[in-house]
Amino acid sequence: MTRPGDQWFDDAAGPLVRPYAVTRGRTMGAGYELDILTLVMLADHAPILRRTEPEYAQIIRLCHVPQAVAEVAATLKLPLAVTKILVGDLIGEGQLIFRSPLVSETGTSDLNVLRAVLDGIRKL
Amino acid sequence: MISTYCERFWMASENYDPSRQNPGPAPHLAASVKILIAGGFGVGKTTMVSAISEIAPLRTEELITEVSSGVDDLSGVEQKHTTTVALDFGRITIDRDLVLYLFGTPGQDRFWFLWDELARGALGAVVLADTRRLSNSFAAVDFFERRGLPFIVGVNCFDGAPRYTIDEVRDALDIDPRTPVLLCDARNRESTKNVLLVLLQHLIELAGREPVST
């Protein structure tokens, strides 16, 4: 608990750069419905990245291997909401391709998916 | 014109990677599914995720803007209104087409709305319970029952002998008699694997009332 006159140091002061600075203040993305589990990876024939902000280049580097948006956020230490916007920008420019997670209506999960997961866990 | 120039420049640079130009097969992206690991604060959710994840558990944070409540005094600046809520998760690659993510839900009850996004599309959930603090698991049980998301209960055996039998835990949590309840050790990979297998079998049972020919 801080009292009047107390100073914040280190982590207590919060991030040095406000989280939405990297999105230039945007809190909405390019309109892609990205879930924390949307998988993204580098597109074939991706155009040359013309953005200079380091976060975009970092995302491109990570996405040589398929990644969930949550993994990108965790690795870059960016909030999920911010990550979704940046990833959305790159999808919009054709840098990344994405695949939405399999969403099962509650209680009616696809049996084939469940069986595949069961087999996969058995083999661990 | 400009793009042609850029392409040439790119090809001439050391970083040029021919695989990016060759029209090979379309890039393959697996689909993702998730299972939630829920339960009260300190019950072993992240421990369970790390026991079985193929990567060290990752932590991601969501920004929460909260209306400050309670003892908010008017001198103002002391109270931070933006807090972060952390999600720990791990990954299990099932096969070429499927990746399973395990998400530990945030322990704090007040982040329900985040649970909502997490619960959407989940295959099912494991509610971890600690017999010393069973009441800490009520919130998770309630939430999944209300959402209709199938779950099982894993009783994490912290110091060897649990103080209650499985039936007592079932009674205390007041759950459907068909919901599996089992003892587990969240630190142990085989035990965690067993928990997930029991969950999957339960889900298959629920989903496949009719026999499937495979």
From TrEMBL, chain A:
Pfam families: DUF742 (PF05331). InterPro entries: DUF742. This is DUF742 domain-containing protein.
